[in-house]
Amino acid sequence: xxxxxxxxxxxxxxxxKSEVEETTRPTxxxxxxxxxxxxxxxxxxxxxxxxxxxxxxxxxxxSLQQFQTCPFRLYLRRVKRxxxxxxxxxNRGTLIHDEAEAYVKxxxxxxxxxxxxxxxxxxxxxxxxxxxxxxVEMEQNWGFDIDWNPIEDDGKLxxxxxxxxxxxxxxxxxxxxxxxxxxxxxxxxxxxxxxxxGGQAMEYAISAFMRFPELEHVTTEFWYLDTGxxxxxxxTRGDIMLLLPRLTTRAIKLTSATKFPPKPSDTACKWCTYPxxxxxxxxxxxV
Length: 287
Ligand code: SF4
Fold this sequence. Notes:
- By secondary structure, this protein is of the alpha+beta class.
- The chain has a domain at 88-248: Lambda Exonuclease, Chain A, CATH 3.90.320.
- It has nine helices and six strands.
- The protein has helices at 36-45, 61-69, 71-79, 88-104, 121-132, 194-211, 237-255, 266-269, 274-277, and strands at residues 136-144, 150-151, 165-176, 179-186, 217-224, 229-236.
- Strands 2-1-3-4-5-6 form a six-stranded mixed β-sheet.
- A hairpin with a 5-residue loop joins strand 1 and strand 2 (150-151).
- Residues 70, 72-73, 262, 264, 268-269, 272, 274-275, 280, 282-283 line the site of iron/sulfur cluster.
């Protein structure tokens, strides 16, 4: 399938993505000779002037990642609603997250089935104690509007037309009025993912500071349950205020985007299933 930019009239809608229709406009010509800078500029200049007026009205960590790696893949998933089959690794990740949650809540006696979960046993048991004391919240969905005002999760968060940012957390601990910890259970590797996970930690911290104005310190902890490693980062409100404009600009580029050109590369296409389903013709194309 070649990418066909939608007509302007198909763009201004809430969550009714099904209303976007194929048009007869000329297809976006992917030119492998186009520089990365030109492609980014193309995406930026093709956006709506309304920061939330693009084809995708809210972003999460994974959609932001995918928008950067290959906008067309995100378009197929979020706008065309073509679901990719879950990989074995993704299914296993979900299972281990569910097991970790059940263990902390006292609904399961065994530690999660990750390879090195036993190395985190003491910390899991401490979490369990804190959960019993009402200090730990598990599997949270935090929503924000375009001005970073929190939106309560009333069970219909995804349908709220104001939703612009969505942060999903494994564990949130309010240590005291001005300090909090966020824990993320990872089944992937730490090595090679430092930049990506650093960005995710920053997004968690920004979300916590935006949700709780009285917070002054946030610590993020990534527990790599298969390798026994961990990664801890600390943020002050001052740090975050410096990082906030950059993340906001990146996210608005996504939520105002009206064109999602393919960006094939060995790394981007390696795990993409859209070539196999016939939805993208660029799979495996070297750049
Ligand atoms: S095959 Fe490559 S270019 Fe096509 S959607 Fe997937 S990641 Fe993008």
